[in-house]
Design a protein that fits this description.
With 94 residues, the chain is mostly helical. The protein folds into 2 domains: 2-53; 58-94, no CATH class. The chain has helices at 2-21, 25-53, and strands spanning 69-71, 78-80. It has a two-stranded antiparallel sheet. Helix 1 (2-21) packs antiparallel against helix 2 (25-53). It starts with a helix and ends in a 14-residue tail after the last strand.
Length: 94
């Protein structure tokens, strides 16, 4: 994933710079705005993927709160029984 992200960043940066320097100013501005929009779309897609696989993701489903819970052995925060990490302090649970 790191190589993909680096490649996307290099391609977007190259397109942005070429649009501003190598073309007509009006076309350059249009290209730059397009690259910025594409960058934001790609960023949020990567962020959504990263949050989906993260053990620290915020839980939006309130129904999971009725599942079995336990307390973190380090900070005392209430966590789900099957959590491997504390959602408050990030400590690995035994």
């Amino acid at each position: 994933m790191g190589l993909v992200g680096l490649s996307v960043a290099v391609i977007l940066h190259t397109a942005f710079d070429y649009g501003l320097v190598g073309t007509d100013p009006l076309v350059g501005i249009i290209v730059a705005v397009g690259v910025i929009v594409a960058g934001w779309v790609i960023f949020f897609r990567f962020a959504r993927t990263a949050l989906a696989v993260s053990p620290f993701r915020p839980e939006a489903d309130v129904a999971q709160l009725s599942m079995a819970t336990k307390y973190c052995i380090f900070c005392g925060a209430l966590i789900l029984a099957d959590d491997r990490f504390c959602r408050s302090c990030g400590a690995r649970q035994l």
